[in-house]
Design goal:
It is built from two helices and three strands. It has about 60 residues and is an alpha/beta fold. It has a single domain (about 5-55), classed as Response regulator (Rossmann fold, 3-Layer(aba) Sandwich), CATH 3.40.50. The longest helix has 13 residues, at about 15-30.
């Protein structure tokens, strides 16, 4: 998928790898870029710098 066709970036903050992998798979299939962070502090820093269109929290 080219960067021009991405609907927006979604930030996923989830400490369980299997769940974050599933979310990444499903959201990517729908055309979203996905950034995964495994803890709250990393998620907060990512939100401040990346400005995602949505955040999914554990």
């Amino acid at each position: 998928m080219s960067p021009d066709s991405v609907k927006g970036l979604i930030l996923v903050v989830e400490d369980e790898r299997a769940i974050s992998d599933l979310l990444r798979l499903y959201l990517s299939r729908e055309g979203f870029g996905v950034q995964v962070e495994s803890d709250g502090l990393a998620g907060l820093n990512a939100a401040r710098t990346l400005h995602p269109v949505a955040i999914i929290l554990d």
